[in-house]
Amino acid sequence: MDIKYDLSSYTRVLKLASTPDWEEFSQIALIAGAGIVLVGILGFLIAFVMGFVPGGL
């Protein structure tokens, strides 16, 4: 484990990183929000179906 090499790698990555502009941020937020909603709907549907299965929830 070479700490000096690791720190230089982290520094290089931080120098290359940039703050996204508003268009890029809003697109990422929209996709992430859609994913969260999709997972929520899927969980709701599974719970709803398990309510009708004998021995379910």
Q: Would you kindly provide a written description of the structure presented here, covering whatever features stand out?
A:
It comes from Halococcus saccharolyticus DSM 5350. The chain crosses the membrane at residues 28-53. Pfam families: SecE (PF00584). It is a single chain. By secondary structure, the protein is mainly alpha-helical. The protein has a domain at 20-57. 79% of the residues lie in helices and 0% in strands. The protein contains two helices and no strands. The protein starts with a helix and ends in a 5-residue tail after the last helix.
- What structural class do the secondary elements suggest? mainly alpha
Sequence stretches where pLDDT stays below 50 over 5 or more residues = none
Alpha carbon gyration radius: 22 Å
Judging from the principal axes of the Cα atoms, what is the shape? elongated
Count of runs of 4 or more consecutive helical residues: 2
Largest sheet: none
Task: Tally the beta strands.
Answer: 0
Quaternary organisation of the protein chains: single chain
Which strand-content bin applies to the residues? under 5%
Question: What's the end-to-end separation, in Å?
Answer: 49 Å
H/E element sequence: HH
Give the helix/strand layout:
Blueprint: H1 3-16, H2 22-52
